[in-house]
Amino acid sequence: MNTKRKSIIIIVVVILCICAAVMLASSDNIKKSVYFGIQRTFNLPIDEPYMIELFEEDKELLNRARDYIIRSGMDHVYIIFDPYYEETYSGFDKSFSDILEELRRKGYEIISGDESYICFFRWVGSYGSRGFVFSRDGNMPQIDFVIKYAELSEENWYYYNENYEDWRVQQAQD
Questions:
Q1: pLDDT tens, 49-80?
Q2: Sign of torsion, CA 58 64 65 70?
Q3: Where are the beta strands (DSSP E) in 7-102?
């Protein structure tokens, strides 16, 4: 191997070592940014601990969206966000449009619900979704194919993990 090639390999290894050291020693915000960057790029599911952190960061915004939906009398809601361009949410007033745009920028993909729950999809994949659900009636939400609910820090809010394949296996075992 010639010396130029060895030099390039050494430089690459040193850069990779520096990057690894920065990742290990850096703040949680940098780690979280890298994690969510990789997650968004490859559309990987978000782990439950990160989802719970996201809820804590976003709960004020989620509560504002929930309050608007309830106050407006929307018994059924279905809003899809396009992550690649800023949308105008015609049909909604400016305050709710601003909330929707902020949710879109934060990576939320869908809001859906009926008279018993409002669901905020934070990750959607080919086999399931993960997000937060608010129970309008105070009962545990009943969403198709959910394999796990976890109560969150705010009353009537739950983390959910929906996975059709795992749900199907669970149903076959029961």
A1: 889 999 999 999 999 999 999 999 999 999 98
A2: positive
A3: 77-80
Q: What is the pTM of this model?
A: 0.74
End-to-end CA separation in angstroms for the chain = 61
pLDDT digits (tens, 9 = 90+) for 109-152: 999 999 999 999 998 887 889 999 999 999 989 888 888 999 99
Q: CA 53 from chain center: how many Å? A: 10
* Full strand arrangement of the beta sheet holding 77-80: 77-80, 110-113, 117-124, 128-135, 157-163, 146-151
Residue 125 DSSP one-character state: -
* Cα(119)–Cα(113) distance, integer angstroms: 6
Instruction: Name which of 31, 34, 39 is nearest 123 in CA terms.
Output: 39
Identify whether the C-beta of residue 122 lies closer than 8 Å to the C-beta of residue 112: no
